[in-house]
Amino acid sequence: MKWLVLLALVGLSESLFRVQLEKFKPVRMVLEEQGLLDDFLEKNPYNPYSKYQIFAQTVNEPMINYLDMEYYGIASIGTPPQSFKMLFDTGSSNLWVASVYCNSYACTNHKKYDPSLSSTYVATNQYMSIQYGTGSMTGFLAYDTVNVAGINVPKQIFALSTTEPGNFLHYAPFDGILGLAFPSLSSGGATPVFDNMMKQGLVSQDLFSVYLSREGSTGSMVTFGGIDQSLFTGSINWVPLTSETYWQIKIDYLKFNGEVVACAQGCSAFVDTGTSLLVGPYEGMTSVERAIYPLINCDNIASMPDLIISINGVEYPVPASAYLRNCHMGLQAINFPSSSGNLWILGDVFLREYYSIYDRANNMVGLAKAV
Fold it and tell me: Annotated catalytic residue: which of 144, 272, 306, 359?
């Protein structure tokens, strides 16, 4: 054997070498010899990020309610940190921010990221673009340290905008968007922020949750790594995802005044904190609006029927005070095509009523009655 040659070279006896070998046997070898290795590995699975677990946490990031239309919080990029107002968006996956390279009208009234001020900035030559339901941007990808709610994410890929066409983003109260959907939806193959939080063991659970306040009030919150029990009542209903792109689920039906008015055979929808309204395809939403319109009573909205959305066998009432804002419907008809047909979007009109939990470990959405 090869180790016998080594013994001769160093002048050790075989018996003495065996004694020394026993003293320094790896734990894995000892467990394997005793038939305990499989049981040990099952109870203690290998986690390459275990050394980071002392940093795993559950943190809250307060959000500003802007006119019940947009909800944004603060995230920083760079070393030292440059802070920006960010829309936390479950309907997209990329992180991007207005930059000093952007000369579009939309960038003129927003804070811009300046890479020359960051010692941890690393550029790439990769171009990217994103088209949203309203607004768009183009730019290029780079890496830098990102901090969200006190969680430091090193070498996070993000985009610096170079153009932001049109007027929509000019009037938006935020400087950029932090996408919280799945990597498969990400432009340029960029890894989303929350995915890096999970991979690096920076959150105590692989989920985050969102509470949206009403009537412009304070208290809106995104919680990374946990669930805030004080922000909902009753039990959490868990809904399996039908696609891991958006946070996509199945709707059983929509009912109004005791009658099914849309999705009688079921339909697909996604839960989107970045969309202000409740959105549906033209045919279905037109049917909903036709049912509601004759019963609108602006002098007594509380007397109007709820719009019922059934999801995974549970009915979720949306009161008239939610789907009517200043006696205008918070509904919109848009065909949003996908491989599952035209999608519905459960935006803020719905999410103000229901605390939402986004579970990446089990690929489910949790819904509970918001306080």
Answer: 272
